[in-house]
# Entry
Amino acid sequence: MTATNRTSAIQDYLATLRRFNRDVRLFFLAAMIIGFTNFSGIYVAIGNLFLLRLGYGTQFIGLVNAVSSLALVSACLPVSALERRFGGRRLILSGLGLNIASSFLLPFAGSLPVEWRSAWILGLVPLNSVSMALYMVSAQPFLAGATGPAERGHVFSVQAALWPLSGFLGSLLGGLIPGFIGRWMDLPLTGPFPYQVTLWISAGISIFALVIMSRTRRVAAVEPEVRSPLQVALSPVKVIAFLSIIVAVQITGESGVRIFTNVYLDRALSLPTATIGLVLGLGQLVAALAALLTPFFAARLGHPRTFILASLAISACILPLALIPSPYGAGLGFMGTVMMAQIARPAIITMQMEFVAGPYRSVMAAVTTMAASLSSGLISLLGGYMIPAQGYAAFFLTGASLTTLAAVGFAVVMTRRGIR
# Structure
C-alpha cells in the first residue's frame, strides 16, 4: 500500500467514524464506563483475587466462572425473544441496572459468616450473568439497527476496542485501590476487605453508564443492501448453527487465558496485586488499539480471512504463557492473546450480523453468545480441575489447540463456499 493509499484509507476511516449518530455515541460512552468497571476492568482484575483472599482455590473459582457462563447460556434465548418484543434499548437498560445491583451485593460475601459465603456468591453470580445476557444479546442488534452497512464493520471494531481500552484503565486502578485502602486502614492485602471495597467502588461508578444509556432512543433496523453468499446459500438456522460452533471452539484459548491469568500470576509467580493489574491493563490497552485496526485488515483481507489469521495468532500467542514460566512470558502471552482476540471479535460479529437478515439478528446474537458462554464455562470448569492435576501449561495449550481447530474448520467452509 502506497503512502497516498494509506492516507486515503485513514481519511475514509475517520470519515466513517464521524458518521456515527448520537445513539451510537451514547452507547459507546456507556460501554466505556461499564468496561472500566464491571465488564472488563476493575472486576476482572480484582474479582478472582477477592475469592482467593476469602480462602477459595482454583476449583471454586472455576466453578464460579462455570456457573456464570451456564447462567448466561440459559438466559440468551429468552432475552432474544424479549428483544424482539420490547427492543434492545429497554433490555440494555435493564441489564445495566441488574448488573449494578448484583455487582454491589456480591462483595458482601466478605462480611458474611464463612458457612454462608459460598451460597451467597453462587446465588448472585447467575443474576450477574442474566444482566450480561440482557446487555450483550441486545447490544449487537441495537448497533446494527443504528448503522448502515458501510458503517457496521467500523462500529463493531470500535465496540470491540472500547471495553479493553477502558478495561486497561480499570485494571490499573483496580490493581492500585486495594493497596491504597490497605495503607489507609492499616490492613494487610492478604485479607479480603481492601478488595471488597474496591468492588463496591466499581459498582458505584457503573451507575453513570445506566444514566447515559437512558438518553438514547429506540432505533429501527437498517437492512443490508446486498445479501452475503452464505446468506443466499444456507438457511438462517444453518448459518447460526455453523457460526455458533466456530465461536464456541475458537474462544476456548482466549477464555482460559482471561479467566486464569491473574490466578497464575498470583499463585504460581507470586506477583503483587499492583503488578497483576498492570499486566492485565497493558493487555487491555494493546487489545483496544488492535481492535481499531480490524477495518484496515478487513478492507485488504476480508472479514473471514481476518478472523482466521487472528485466531491462528491467538494460538501462537498462548505459547509463551504456557511454556515460559516467568512474568515476561506470562505478560507477553496474555497481551498477545487478548490483542489478537480483539481483532478476531469484530470480524466475526460483523459476519454474524450480515450473514442473516434483520429478523434473525437477535437470534444470532443470542445463540452465538450462548455458545461463547457455554464454552467459557466448560473451559473454566476444566481449568479448575486440570490446573491442580496437570499444571497451567497443559491447560493453556489445550485452549490453544482448540482455537487452531476452529480457525482451520472455518477456513475450510469459507473456501468451499467461495467467501473471502
